[in-house]
Amino acid sequence: MIKGVILIGVGRNLNRAVRTCYSFGVYNVYCYQCAGLVKGGLFSAEGRVQIHHMDDLSAFDCTAVLGLEITTTLPLLQNISLRGIEYLAIGGESVTLRQRDWPIMAQIATENDLCLTTEAALAIALYDLSRRLI
Question: Read out DSSP for the chain?
Fold first, then answer.
């Protein structure tokens, strides 16, 4: 699997994102500009997922990160090579990831233009990755 998930600007869905990571065997969550608090309701994920609060993202090699966004001009998630990918980056619902920051990006195709919640996008991506990395 991957080494961790980078959450950018995630608010009230932070708990759900942490639980989703745990469900798929991801034990490191890196939070950048996340307004949400991890509290209560983590159930079996509590104490098993490390939450790393980051002041900047310079510690990450951006070529080892797959950014997810709804931009329809991006390649589909299932068409992206996972070679060298160690992290996923997902923004909060009001955050748009830019390709100049994350050169490897993909979209999760949806029927309508409404963006997915953080944990929904995360679950779809981790499910796809887990199936392909086995």
Answer: --SEEEEES--TTHHHHHHHHHHTT--EEEEES------S--GGGTTTSEEEEES-STTS-GGGEEEE---TTSPBGGGS--TT--EEEEE-TT----TTT-SSEEB---SSSPPPPHHHHHHHHHHHHHHHH-
Query: Which domains occur in the chain, in start order?
Result: 4-133 (3.40.1280.10)
Q: What is the pTM of this model?
A: 0.91
Q: What is the C-alpha separation between 120 and 126, in angstroms, rounded?
A: 10
pLDDT along the chain (134 residues), means of 10: 93 88 94 80 70 93 94 93 95 88 92 85 94 80
